[in-house]
Design goal:
This protein is of the alpha+beta class. The chain has one domain. The chain is built from 8 helices and 4 strands, in the order E-H-H-H-E-E-H-H-H-H-E-H. The structure holds zinc ion (ZN).
């Protein structure tokens, strides 16, 4: 069954859709490189092959194979103060939140807590037909699959 387009709300889960990157023929890893800090960009500038490393998901305990580039971003670059700041463009800031959290789906409300920007503005930016950096609503059937996880408490 093909799901029809439903207008996203403040409670719709979004994520980075890797299929979008493949459909567009854009190289996700080249793009990923541009979000690394300058030290890591230096280190990975001649980086061609996919290097996979084991990543243990802290919330589920599952071991997943992740890309070495993405791993560096999570353990190094995303922890630096200027990874996302008030000057970071909205679409870049949202994309970087998903890179940093391992692409765990988030709603505009949750993103607004991460970014300290209004949820309505976030929804207007990523909730339309224009897709930025592959950020799209999570399809219904996938939402059900990940909703076993407990939502993050509001008072964080
Ligand atoms: Zn780095």
């Amino acid at each position: 069954m093909k799901s029809r387009w439903v207008r996203p709300t403040l409670n719709t889960k979004f994520h980075i859709d890797r299929d979008w990157w493949e459909e567009k023929g854009r190289n996700f890893r080249v793009h990923l490189l541009s979000h690394l800090c300058s030290e890591c960009q230096q280190r990975y500038q001649d980086y061609q092959e996919t290097e996979l490393i084991d990543w243990i998901d802290a919330s589920t305990g599952e071991v997943a194979q992740v890309d070495g580039l993405w791993h560096s971003l999570r353990v190094c670059c995303s922890l630096k103060p200027d990874y996302v700041n008030e000057l970071t463009p909205m679409t870049t800031a949202i994309f970087r939140v998903f890179l940093a959290n391992g692409n765990e789906p988030l709603t505009p409300i949750e993103l607004s807590q991460e970014l300290n920007r209004p949820a309505e503005t976030i929804l207007r930016t990523i909730g339309g037909f224009q897709v930025y950096h592959g950020i799209k609503p999570v399809p219904e059937e996938e939402v059900r699959r990940v909703s076993r996880r407990k939502p993050v408490a509001d008072e964080e």
